[in-house]
Design goal:
365 residues; ten-stranded mixed beta sheet; alpha+beta; binds adenosine-5'-diphosphate
Length: 365
């Protein structure tokens, strides 16, 4: 009955224009947009599989289908540049350069600069050179056009400490469009690429005059403007504990990104212990900070994505210190003890769903 109620709630939210920050288990599908029936009025919808996740787009106004093709091309070309497994991508080239400088495009240079800056501010909680560790746990994808993950396993402590000797974002050198990485290191942009893809797609839509669109990039929601009637988009924030896709709350969003990281998105279990894909660079193991989910709301999807991963690793107290020190974004932090902490700027735009077991705490500056 509870499950039925949850599904009903999810459906109601969806029908009322709500999109969950949900990462569905990706089914390999073609990267071409699959057009869905137009639900009436000037609106186009499309679904693609890119960056290892299912993405759905909803674009209001004229030329919706054209706009979907446009952003699909942009996302596909970003994937070709930023993918760690695609031979010849900027990231692949950096990882295979055996310590030599590599010329990269603007996107990779921008994201690596951003990642280094965030790594610094977050005291190493975000570290793009964690890739060897992520691989050891089996959370890296197997390769091009093969979205499945490698075999999950729990690496031994000695193996992890050896791998951590090759992890340090400060050793990534970015200068004048070239990147140099020590030969014994590897990097990946999995923690920020999807949010950045949403940011770029939204910018492109705005440049083309779109004033109302919602892009769901698998756990990352990017909005352009508001709903066509001028009211805010309503985004369902997934209950991290549920397996039904139930929501714990609803976030109103206008022209911003909302990016969620959680330990329930990709995980495996062994001997009754759950291991997930967000790693603490201090230990080389899945981050157990007490937070079960972090959502970052802000203007720049790439930054929000990097922060969602970093704050998940940092835990509530450090995360809120970070917010107070640097600002420029709002956050929804879900604690293992069923408390939802929201930063002051979300007071009027976030509410828990009725009858939830969660309690809400507003954090003032
Ligand atoms: P998702 O990809 O589910 O949206 P995140 O944005 O939190 O989740 O990014 C997690 C991905 O980033 C992992 O799959 C891994 O490739 C990489 N990663 C894991 N831990 C870290 C970390 N501490 N710093 C940087 N990248 C990480
Ligand atoms: Mg992230």
């Amino acid at each position: 009955m509870k499950r039925f109620a949850a599904i009903l709630l999810a459906l109601t939210l969806l029908l009322s224009g709500c999109t969950g920050t949900v990462t569905p288990t990706p089914e390999p599908t073609p990267t071409l947009p699959v057009s869905l029936p137009t639900p009436g009025g000037d609106v186009a919808e499309g679904t693609i599989f890119a960056m290892d996740t299912v993405m759905t787009f909803r674009i209001h106004g004229e030329n919706g289908q054209e706009m979907i093709s446009l952003i699909t091309n942009t996302i596909n070309s970003l994937e070709n540049t930023l993918s760690v497994t695609r031979e010849g991508s900027d990231v692949w080239n950096i990882n295979h350069a055996t310590g030599e400088p590599i010329a990269v495009g603007e996107d990779a240079a921008y994201l690596l600069t951003l990642a280094k800056e965030l790594g610094e501010k977050a005291d190493g909680a975000l570290d793009v050179t964690m890739y060897p560790v992520v691989k050891a746990w089996g959370f890296a994808t197997k390769g091009v056009d093969d979205p499945g993950e490698a075999e999950h396993r729990v690496p031994r402590a000695e193996e992890l400490s050896e791998l951590l000797e090759h992890v340090d974002y400060r050793k990534v050198a970015v200068q004048d469009g070239t990147v140099t990485l020590p030969a014994d290191m590897e990097l990946d942009l999995g923690a920020i690429a999807k949010g950045y893809a949403g940011e770029r797609a939204a910018d492109l839509l705005r440049e083309n005059g779109v004033t109302s669109a919602l892009l769901n990039m698998g756990g990352n929601v990017q909005s352009v403007g508001s709903k066509p009637d001028g009211s805010p988009w309503r985004i369902g924030i997934q209950d991290p504990a549920g397996d039904t896709g139930a929501y714990l709350g609803v976030l109103q969003l206008v022209d911003q990104a909302a990016v969620t990281s959680g330990g329930y998105q990709r995980y495996f279990e062994e001997d009754g212990i759950r291991y997930w894909h967000i790693m603490d660079p201090a230990t080389g193991a899945p981050a157990r900070s007490g937070l079960t989910q972090v959502t970052i709301v802000g203007d720049k999807g790439g930054l929000c994505d990097g922060l969602s991963t970093a704050l998940f690793v940092m835990g509530r107290e450090k995360a809120l210190d970070y917010w107070r020190t640097y600002g420029g974004f709002e956050a929804i932090l879900v604690d293992g003890d069923n408390t939802v902490w929201i930063t002051a700027g979300l007071k009027d735009s976030f509410s828990l769903v009725e009858g939830t077991e969660y309690t809400l705490q507003v954090v003032e500056e």
